Amino acid sequence: MSKRLTGLICALALFLSLSGCAAPPKEATSQIFAMDTFMTLTVYGKGIETSAEAALDQMEDYIYALENALSVTREASDIHKINTAGGESVEVGYAAAGLLDGALELCEQTGGALDVTLYPVVKAWGFTTGENRVPGQEELAALKDRVGYSAVELDGQTVTLPAGMELDLGAVAKGYTGYQLAVLLKELGFSSACLSLGGNVQTIGAKPNGDPWRVGVQDPESGNALAIVDVIDKAVVTSGNYQRYFKENGQIYGHIIDPDTLSPADSGLASVTIVADKGLYCDGLSTALFVMGLEEATHFWRQHRDFEAVFIGEDGAVTITAGLEGSFSLASGYENREVTILE
Ligand code: FAD
Ligand code: MG
Protein backbone atom coordinates (compact mmCIF):
# COMPACT_ATOMS: atom_id res chain seq x y z
CA MET A 1 0.00 0.00 0.00
CA SER A 2 1.43 3.37 -0.94
CA LYS A 3 2.29 6.08 1.58
CA ARG A 4 -0.26 8.36 -0.07
CA LEU A 5 -3.04 5.88 0.42
CA THR A 6 -2.06 5.38 4.02
CA GLY A 7 -2.29 9.14 4.52
CA LEU A 8 -5.76 9.20 3.01
CA ILE A 9 -6.88 6.36 5.20
CA CYS A 10 -5.59 8.07 8.30
CA ALA A 11 -7.34 11.28 7.34
CA LEU A 12 -10.59 9.38 6.87
CA ALA A 13 -10.16 7.58 10.15
CA LEU A 14 -9.56 10.89 11.86
CA PHE A 15 -12.65 12.41 10.22
CA LEU A 16 -14.77 9.49 11.28
CA SER A 17 -13.50 9.47 14.82
CA LEU A 18 -14.11 13.19 15.12
CA SER A 19 -17.60 12.88 13.69
CA GLY A 20 -18.18 9.94 16.04
CA CYS A 21 -17.33 11.98 19.11
CA ALA A 22 -18.58 15.41 18.01
CA ALA A 23 -20.75 16.91 20.73
CA PRO A 24 -20.67 19.26 23.71
CA PRO A 25 -17.67 21.38 24.69
CA LYS A 26 -14.55 19.25 25.07
CA GLU A 27 -12.66 19.19 28.33
CA ALA A 28 -9.51 17.68 26.90
CA THR A 29 -8.55 15.87 23.75
CA SER A 30 -5.38 14.45 22.28
CA GLN A 31 -4.45 12.88 18.99
CA ILE A 32 -1.63 10.42 18.73
CA PHE A 33 -0.32 7.96 16.18
CA ALA A 34 0.22 4.50 17.67
CA MET A 35 -0.34 0.88 16.62
CA ASP A 36 -0.07 2.12 13.02
CA THR A 37 -3.21 4.23 13.30
CA PHE A 38 -4.40 7.70 14.34
CA MET A 39 -6.09 7.77 17.71
CA THR A 40 -8.29 10.51 19.15
CA LEU A 41 -8.90 10.50 22.89
CA THR A 42 -11.53 12.86 24.29
CA VAL A 43 -12.26 13.09 28.01
CA TYR A 44 -14.91 15.21 29.73
CA GLY A 45 -15.07 16.51 33.28
CA LYS A 46 -12.72 15.71 36.13
CA GLY A 47 -11.66 12.54 37.87
CA ILE A 48 -11.51 12.06 41.63
CA GLU A 49 -8.01 13.49 41.91
CA THR A 50 -7.01 13.68 38.24
CA SER A 51 -7.53 16.38 35.64
CA ALA A 52 -8.65 15.39 32.15
CA GLU A 53 -5.21 16.44 30.83
CA ALA A 54 -3.42 14.21 33.34
CA ALA A 55 -5.74 11.34 32.40
CA LEU A 56 -4.84 11.84 28.73
CA ASP A 57 -1.13 11.65 29.64
CA GLN A 58 -1.70 8.42 31.53
CA MET A 59 -3.68 6.97 28.63
CA GLU A 60 -0.99 7.86 26.11
CA ASP A 61 1.70 6.22 28.28
CA TYR A 62 -0.49 3.14 28.59
CA ILE A 63 -1.09 2.92 24.82
CA TYR A 64 2.65 3.16 24.08
CA ALA A 65 3.38 0.53 26.76
CA LEU A 66 0.81 -1.83 25.22
CA GLU A 67 2.18 -1.15 21.75
CA ASN A 68 5.67 -2.06 22.99
CA ALA A 69 4.36 -5.28 24.51
CA LEU A 70 2.01 -6.37 21.74
CA SER A 71 3.50 -5.25 18.44
CA VAL A 72 4.51 -8.14 16.22
CA THR A 73 7.16 -6.01 14.50
CA ARG A 74 8.98 -4.63 17.58
CA GLU A 75 11.92 -6.74 18.64
CA ALA A 76 11.47 -6.10 22.35
CA SER A 77 7.77 -7.00 22.39
CA ASP A 78 6.36 -10.05 24.15
CA ILE A 79 4.88 -11.20 20.85
CA HIS A 80 8.22 -10.97 19.05
CA LYS A 81 9.85 -12.94 21.89
CA ILE A 82 7.27 -15.70 21.54
CA ASN A 83 7.66 -15.75 17.75
CA THR A 84 11.44 -16.07 17.89
CA ALA A 85 11.72 -18.52 20.81
CA GLY A 86 12.09 -21.54 18.51
CA GLY A 87 9.53 -23.58 20.44
CA GLU A 88 10.83 -22.69 23.93
CA SER A 89 8.45 -21.39 26.59
CA VAL A 90 8.41 -17.64 27.14
CA GLU A 91 7.29 -15.67 30.18
CA VAL A 92 5.21 -12.68 29.05
CA GLY A 93 3.67 -9.66 30.73
CA TYR A 94 0.17 -9.37 32.11
CA ALA A 95 -1.23 -7.64 29.00
CA ALA A 96 0.07 -10.11 26.44
CA ALA A 97 -1.09 -13.06 28.54
CA GLY A 98 -4.52 -11.54 29.21
CA LEU A 99 -5.08 -10.58 25.60
CA LEU A 100 -3.88 -13.94 24.30
CA ASP A 101 -6.16 -15.75 26.73
CA GLY A 102 -9.22 -13.82 25.54
CA ALA A 103 -8.17 -14.09 21.89
CA LEU A 104 -7.70 -17.86 22.03
CA GLU A 105 -11.17 -18.22 23.50
CA LEU A 106 -12.56 -16.22 20.57
CA CYS A 107 -10.60 -18.32 18.06
CA GLU A 108 -12.34 -21.36 19.53
CA GLN A 109 -15.75 -19.72 19.72
CA THR A 110 -15.62 -18.58 16.07
CA GLY A 111 -14.58 -22.03 14.86
CA GLY A 112 -11.19 -20.72 13.80
CA ALA A 113 -12.47 -17.83 11.63
CA LEU A 114 -10.33 -15.77 13.98
CA ASP A 115 -6.87 -17.28 14.20
CA VAL A 116 -4.05 -15.53 16.04
CA THR A 117 -1.36 -17.66 14.38
CA LEU A 118 -1.74 -16.26 10.86
CA TYR A 119 1.40 -14.13 10.93
CA PRO A 120 3.41 -16.30 8.49
CA VAL A 121 0.52 -15.88 6.03
CA VAL A 122 0.07 -12.15 6.72
CA LYS A 123 3.80 -11.77 5.96
CA ALA A 124 3.62 -13.89 2.80
CA TRP A 125 1.02 -11.45 1.43
CA GLY A 126 3.23 -8.54 2.48
CA PHE A 127 0.86 -7.02 5.04
CA THR A 128 2.72 -5.22 7.87
CA THR A 129 5.92 -5.27 5.77
CA GLY A 130 4.39 -3.01 3.12
CA GLU A 131 5.79 -5.18 0.31
CA ASN A 132 2.55 -6.64 -0.96
CA ARG A 133 2.60 -9.63 -3.29
CA VAL A 134 0.40 -12.58 -4.26
CA PRO A 135 2.01 -15.80 -3.01
CA GLY A 136 1.73 -18.91 -5.19
CA GLN A 137 -0.51 -21.85 -4.21
CA GLU A 138 2.52 -24.01 -3.35
CA GLU A 139 3.91 -21.35 -1.06
CA LEU A 140 0.55 -21.06 0.72
CA ALA A 141 0.17 -24.84 1.00
CA ALA A 142 3.60 -24.98 2.64
CA LEU A 143 2.41 -22.50 5.28
CA LYS A 144 -0.56 -24.69 6.35
CA ASP A 145 1.48 -26.52 8.98
CA ARG A 146 2.62 -23.25 10.51
CA VAL A 147 -0.92 -22.06 11.26
CA GLY A 148 -3.48 -23.21 13.83
CA TYR A 149 -4.38 -21.50 17.12
CA SER A 150 -4.97 -24.80 18.94
CA ALA A 151 -1.20 -25.37 19.00
CA VAL A 152 -0.68 -22.31 21.23
CA GLU A 153 -0.12 -23.21 24.87
CA LEU A 154 -0.84 -20.62 27.53
CA ASP A 155 -0.25 -21.45 31.17
CA GLY A 156 -0.66 -18.39 33.39
CA GLN A 157 1.81 -15.97 31.82
CA THR A 158 3.88 -18.66 30.09
CA VAL A 159 3.41 -19.10 26.35
CA THR A 160 4.72 -21.99 24.27
CA LEU A 161 4.44 -21.91 20.51
CA PRO A 162 5.78 -24.64 18.22
CA ALA A 163 8.88 -23.60 16.25
CA GLY A 164 7.95 -22.09 12.89
CA MET A 165 4.63 -20.68 14.11
CA GLU A 166 4.13 -16.96 14.77
CA LEU A 167 1.48 -14.99 16.63
CA ASP A 168 -0.20 -11.79 15.39
CA LEU A 169 -2.63 -10.11 17.77
CA GLY A 170 -3.36 -7.21 15.39
CA ALA A 171 -6.98 -8.33 15.00
CA VAL A 172 -7.74 -7.94 18.70
CA ALA A 173 -5.15 -5.62 20.28
CA LYS A 174 -6.83 -2.29 19.60
CA GLY A 175 -10.19 -3.43 20.94
CA TYR A 176 -8.45 -4.77 24.05
CA THR A 177 -6.56 -1.49 24.42
CA GLY A 178 -9.75 0.59 24.17
CA TYR A 179 -11.45 -1.42 26.88
CA GLN A 180 -8.41 -1.31 29.19
CA LEU A 181 -8.33 2.47 28.75
CA ALA A 182 -12.02 2.62 29.69
CA VAL A 183 -11.27 0.64 32.86
CA LEU A 184 -8.39 3.01 33.69
CA LEU A 185 -10.54 6.12 33.15
CA LYS A 186 -13.35 4.78 35.31
CA GLU A 187 -10.87 3.95 38.08
CA LEU A 188 -9.66 7.56 37.90
CA GLY A 189 -13.25 8.68 38.36
CA PHE A 190 -14.21 9.76 34.83
CA SER A 191 -17.69 8.98 33.60
CA SER A 192 -17.75 10.49 30.10
CA ALA A 193 -15.22 9.91 27.33
CA CYS A 194 -14.93 8.81 23.73
CA LEU A 195 -11.79 7.03 22.55
CA SER A 196 -11.29 6.40 18.86
CA LEU A 197 -8.47 4.00 18.03
CA GLY A 198 -8.69 3.82 14.23
CA GLY A 199 -11.90 1.90 13.54
CA ASN A 200 -12.15 0.91 17.19
CA VAL A 201 -14.34 3.30 19.18
CA GLN A 202 -14.69 2.85 22.93
CA THR A 203 -17.20 5.03 24.74
CA ILE A 204 -17.25 5.61 28.48
CA GLY A 205 -20.68 6.45 29.88
CA ALA A 206 -22.82 8.91 27.94
CA LYS A 207 -22.08 12.40 26.65
CA PRO A 208 -21.87 14.95 29.48
CA ASN A 209 -25.50 15.99 28.78
CA GLY A 210 -26.66 12.37 29.12
CA ASP A 211 -27.24 11.78 25.41
CA PRO A 212 -25.76 8.70 23.73
CA TRP A 213 -22.56 8.98 21.70
CA ARG A 214 -23.17 9.04 17.96
CA VAL A 215 -20.62 6.77 16.28
CA GLY A 216 -20.28 6.89 12.50
CA VAL A 217 -20.21 3.75 10.35
CA GLN A 218 -18.25 4.41 7.18
CA ASP A 219 -19.43 3.73 3.64
CA PRO A 220 -16.71 1.33 2.44
CA GLU A 221 -17.02 2.74 -1.05
CA SER A 222 -16.81 6.50 -0.47
CA GLY A 223 -15.42 6.79 3.05
CA ASN A 224 -18.35 9.03 4.08
CA ALA A 225 -20.41 8.27 7.17
CA LEU A 226 -23.17 5.95 5.92
CA ALA A 227 -24.91 5.42 9.24
CA ILE A 228 -24.83 6.43 12.87
CA VAL A 229 -25.08 4.11 15.84
CA ASP A 230 -26.09 5.64 19.18
CA VAL A 231 -24.37 4.01 22.14
CA ILE A 232 -23.71 4.49 25.84
CA ASP A 233 -20.71 2.84 27.53
CA LYS A 234 -20.04 0.44 24.65
CA ALA A 235 -17.37 -0.38 22.12
CA VAL A 236 -18.08 -0.06 18.39
CA VAL A 237 -15.50 -1.79 16.20
CA THR A 238 -15.34 -2.03 12.41
CA SER A 239 -13.33 -4.40 10.23
CA GLY A 240 -13.16 -4.12 6.48
CA ASN A 241 -10.95 -4.73 3.54
CA TYR A 242 -11.31 -1.21 2.15
CA GLN A 243 -8.54 0.47 4.12
CA ARG A 244 -5.67 -2.03 4.18
CA TYR A 245 -5.42 -3.70 0.81
CA PHE A 246 -3.45 -3.81 -2.40
CA LYS A 247 -4.42 -4.25 -6.01
CA GLU A 248 -2.75 -6.54 -8.52
CA ASN A 249 -3.95 -7.26 -12.05
CA GLY A 250 -7.24 -5.54 -11.28
CA GLN A 251 -7.89 -7.79 -8.27
CA ILE A 252 -8.20 -6.38 -4.75
CA TYR A 253 -6.47 -8.25 -1.92
CA GLY A 254 -7.48 -7.22 1.61
CA HIS A 255 -5.62 -7.77 4.88
CA ILE A 256 -8.21 -10.01 6.53
CA ILE A 257 -7.23 -13.60 5.83
CA ASP A 258 -9.55 -16.58 5.63
CA PRO A 259 -7.73 -19.25 7.69
CA ASP A 260 -9.24 -21.96 5.46
CA THR A 261 -7.73 -20.64 2.22
CA LEU A 262 -4.83 -18.61 3.70
CA SER A 263 -5.91 -15.93 1.24
CA PRO A 264 -7.77 -12.64 1.72
CA ALA A 265 -11.34 -13.30 2.87
CA ASP A 266 -13.76 -13.08 -0.03
CA SER A 267 -17.10 -13.50 1.70
CA GLY A 268 -19.12 -10.81 -0.08
CA LEU A 269 -18.89 -8.38 2.85
CA ALA A 270 -17.23 -4.97 2.63
CA SER A 271 -17.36 -4.24 6.36
CA VAL A 272 -18.61 -5.58 9.66
CA THR A 273 -19.26 -3.35 12.68
CA ILE A 274 -19.77 -4.93 16.09
CA VAL A 275 -21.36 -3.21 19.10
CA ALA A 276 -20.89 -4.78 22.54
CA ASP A 277 -19.61 -4.08 26.05
CA LYS A 278 -16.04 -5.27 25.60
CA GLY A 279 -13.62 -4.06 22.93
CA LEU A 280 -11.72 -7.32 22.67
CA TYR A 281 -14.94 -9.20 21.89
CA CYS A 282 -15.96 -6.54 19.33
CA ASP A 283 -12.55 -6.49 17.65
CA GLY A 284 -12.22 -10.27 17.47
CA LEU A 285 -15.77 -10.70 16.19
CA SER A 286 -15.55 -7.91 13.59
CA THR A 287 -12.61 -9.75 12.00
CA ALA A 288 -14.11 -13.24 12.39
CA LEU A 289 -17.58 -12.35 11.10
CA PHE A 290 -15.99 -10.61 8.12
CA VAL A 291 -14.31 -13.92 7.30
CA MET A 292 -17.55 -15.89 7.81
CA GLY A 293 -19.74 -13.80 5.50
CA LEU A 294 -23.33 -12.73 6.14
CA GLU A 295 -25.02 -16.12 6.28
CA GLU A 296 -22.65 -17.75 8.75
CA ALA A 297 -22.34 -14.51 10.73
CA THR A 298 -26.16 -14.36 11.03
CA HIS A 299 -26.17 -17.89 12.40
CA PHE A 300 -23.40 -16.95 14.86
CA TRP A 301 -25.37 -13.91 16.05
CA ARG A 302 -28.55 -15.94 16.53
CA GLN A 303 -26.62 -18.45 18.64
CA HIS A 304 -24.97 -15.81 20.85
CA ARG A 305 -27.10 -12.63 20.92
CA ASP A 306 -24.62 -10.88 23.22
CA PHE A 307 -23.57 -8.33 20.60
CA GLU A 308 -25.14 -6.32 17.80
CA ALA A 309 -23.80 -5.88 14.27
CA VAL A 310 -23.98 -3.81 11.09
CA PHE A 311 -23.02 -5.66 7.91
CA ILE A 312 -22.33 -3.82 4.68
CA GLY A 313 -22.12 -6.03 1.61
CA GLU A 314 -19.82 -5.48 -1.35
CA ASP A 315 -23.02 -4.60 -3.22
CA GLY A 316 -23.80 -1.89 -0.62
CA ALA A 317 -26.60 -3.87 1.06
CA VAL A 318 -26.99 -2.92 4.74
CA THR A 319 -28.06 -5.52 7.31
CA ILE A 320 -28.39 -4.85 11.04
CA THR A 321 -29.23 -7.05 14.00
CA ALA A 322 -32.56 -6.51 15.78
CA GLY A 323 -31.06 -4.94 18.92
CA LEU A 324 -29.86 -1.94 16.93
CA GLU A 325 -33.30 -1.03 15.59
CA GLY A 326 -33.81 1.93 17.92
CA SER A 327 -30.23 3.16 17.89
CA PHE A 328 -29.28 2.90 14.20
CA SER A 329 -29.94 5.65 11.68
CA LEU A 330 -28.82 6.26 8.12
CA ALA A 331 -26.64 9.33 7.66
CA SER A 332 -27.43 12.28 5.47
CA GLY A 333 -27.25 11.31 1.80
CA TYR A 334 -28.03 7.65 2.54
CA GLU A 335 -31.67 8.03 3.67
CA ASN A 336 -32.94 5.88 0.81
CA ARG A 337 -30.60 2.93 1.41
CA GLU A 338 -32.59 -0.21 2.19
CA VAL A 339 -31.81 -1.77 5.56
CA THR A 340 -32.58 -5.40 6.39
CA ILE A 341 -33.13 -6.20 10.05
CA LEU A 342 -32.13 -9.66 11.28
CA GLU A 343 -34.50 -11.21 13.81
P1 FAD B 1 -8.83 -6.24 12.10
O1 FAD B 1 -9.89 -6.85 11.27
O2 FAD B 1 -9.16 -6.07 13.53
O3 FAD B 1 -7.53 -7.16 12.04
C1 FAD B 1 -6.97 -7.62 10.85
C2 FAD B 1 -5.52 -7.89 11.08
O4 FAD B 1 -5.36 -9.07 11.85
C3 FAD B 1 -4.76 -8.10 9.79
O5 FAD B 1 -4.11 -6.92 9.36
C4 FAD B 1 -3.79 -9.20 10.16
O6 FAD B 1 -2.67 -8.63 10.78
C5 FAD B 1 -4.54 -10.02 11.17
N1 FAD B 1 -5.47 -10.98 10.59
C6 FAD B 1 -5.90 -11.14 9.32
N2 FAD B 1 -6.82 -12.11 9.21
C7 FAD B 1 -6.99 -12.60 10.46
C8 FAD B 1 -7.82 -13.62 11.00
N3 FAD B 1 -8.66 -14.34 10.24
N4 FAD B 1 -7.71 -13.88 12.32
C9 FAD B 1 -6.86 -13.18 13.10
N5 FAD B 1 -6.05 -12.20 12.65
C10 FAD B 1 -6.14 -11.90 11.35
N6 FAD B 1 0.85 -2.28 11.04
C11 FAD B 1 1.93 -2.01 10.29
O7 FAD B 1 1.83 -1.98 9.07
N7 FAD B 1 3.14 -1.76 10.87
C12 FAD B 1 3.31 -1.81 12.22
O8 FAD B 1 4.41 -1.59 12.71
C13 FAD B 1 2.18 -2.10 13.04
N8 FAD B 1 2.28 -2.14 14.39
C14 FAD B 1 1.18 -2.46 15.13
C15 FAD B 1 1.30 -2.57 16.54
C16 FAD B 1 0.19 -2.94 17.30
C17 FAD B 1 0.33 -3.08 18.78
C18 FAD B 1 -1.08 -3.15 16.67
C19 FAD B 1 -2.29 -3.54 17.47
C20 FAD B 1 -1.19 -3.02 15.29
C21 FAD B 1 -0.08 -2.68 14.51
N9 FAD B 1 -0.18 -2.58 13.13
C22 FAD B 1 0.94 -2.32 12.39
C23 FAD B 1 -1.47 -2.81 12.43
C24 FAD B 1 -1.76 -4.32 12.32
O9 FAD B 1 -0.78 -4.92 11.59
C25 FAD B 1 -3.10 -4.59 11.64
O10 FAD B 1 -3.08 -4.17 10.32
C26 FAD B 1 -4.18 -3.86 12.34
O11 FAD B 1 -4.13 -4.18 13.68
C27 FAD B 1 -5.50 -4.20 11.71
O12 FAD B 1 -6.51 -3.74 12.53
P2 FAD B 1 -7.93 -3.49 11.95
O13 FAD B 1 -8.75 -3.05 13.10
O14 FAD B 1 -7.84 -2.63 10.75
O15 FAD B 1 -8.41 -4.91 11.39
MG1 MG C 1 -10.60 -7.09 14.65
Give structural notes.
Strands 1-2-6-7-10-15-16-17-19 form a nine-stranded mixed β-sheet, sandwiched between helices. Residues 1-20 have low confidence and may be disordered. It has nine helices and 19 strands. The protein is α+β, with helices and mostly antiparallel strands and 343 residues long. A hairpin with a 2-residue loop joins β11 (245-248) and β12. It has helices at 3-21, 52-70, 78-83, 94-109, 119-124, 137-143, 173-187, 279-292, 294-304, and strands at residues 28-34, 37-43, 90-91, 153-155, 158-160, 193-197, 200-204, 213-218, 225-231, 235-240, 245-248, 251-254, 257-258, 263-264, 269-276, 308-313, 318-321, 328-330, 339-342.
Distance between the termini: 39 Å
Proportion of β residues? 25-35%
Number of E-state strands: 19
- What is the chain-wise order of helices and strands? HEEHHEHHHEEHEEEEEEEEEEHHEEEE
Give the averaged pLDDT, no decimals. Answer: 92
The major beta sheet can be summarized as: 9 strands, mixed
Low-confidence stretches: 1-20
- Give the strand line-up of the largest sheet: 1-2-6-7-10-15-16-17-19
| Proportion of helical residues | 25-40%
Rg value: 19 Å
- Give the overall shape: globular
Name the bound molecules: flavin-adenine dinucleotide, magnesium ion
Question: What's the number of helices?
Answer: 9
Task: Give me the secondary-structure category.
Answer: alpha+beta
Question: What is this entry, summarized?
Answer:
The chain is an alpha+beta fold. The protein is 33% helix and 26% strand.
Keywords summarizing the entry:
343 residues, alpha+beta, nine-stranded mixed beta sheet, three-stranded antiparallel beta sheet, disordered N terminus, binds flavin-adenine dinucleotide, binds magnesium ion
